[in-house]
Amino acid sequence: MADPHAEATALTGIYLYCLARPQCLALDQSLVGPALAGVDERFPITAVVADKVVAVVSEVVIADFSEQNLQTLSWIGEHATRHEEVVARTMAASPVLPVKFGTIYRSHDSLMAFLQRHSGAIESGLDTLIDKSEWSVKGYLLEDNARQIIASEDAQVQSCRAALSQSPGLRYLQQKQLDTRIETALEAGLERVNQDLMHSLQLRSIDATTLRLHASNVTGRPERMVFNAAFLLDVETLPDFRVALAEQQDAYQTIGLAMELRGPWPPYNFCPDLSESQA
Predict the structure, then answer these.
(1) Regarding the domain delimited by 133-144+186-268, which CATH topology (the fold level of the hierarchy) does it fall under?
(2) What is the percentage of the chain residues whose pLDDT exceeds 90?
(3) pTM for the full model?
């Protein structure tokens, strides 16, 4: 009779969490070993050492990363959280290059080949990220408040309002045109706000990048997300960055813009591009 465990093992791959320096191996055994559950808690976290680089890995059953599971939010949420916990634990002792969720190599040999092929970029990236972390800034807007304020400050909108006809039919058409003008003014105003925010915060950070905006069904908030960016900071730049963000919050709170700062995170958005097909 076939051994089910042997069959499962034959279908496993090497799951890569992040790349780090060897000092991450001195985490009182809280990283490597059974103390920390990886994306598949049946397999322990281990490390593959290639000269001055450590690949933090564990085995996974490849079939678990099926298209169906990867399209199931509950499954992704649970397993991506475990992925992030491993990366965050590693970051406590070493600079890290986080790897995107679901990166799997079919063998140790293919992983070692990847590490050797990109050794220069990996080591340079780790050196660049020493003592740095990623912080996110998101901006949420109460659109009704912003629409009213921007409309009150737009001369063309005010002129159109003053010229509204008393005739119901004509007034209806004019109001539709006015609503379109208000929306145009709102979007133009938000674009200026975004540019000002990004410019001001970027000056106080080591690096920065804009991120895509999310709808309310993703954020879980009724307000519209109008700003989303990631910033690379260290202990020296963080205080000035907080001050700059507070100043921007004060400047724009009158239009109903609320800023949200979160971190520190592993620098997912500031890693060198090492993308390639796994084998």
Answers:
(1) Alpha-Beta Plaits (3.30.70)
(2) 57
(3) 0.80
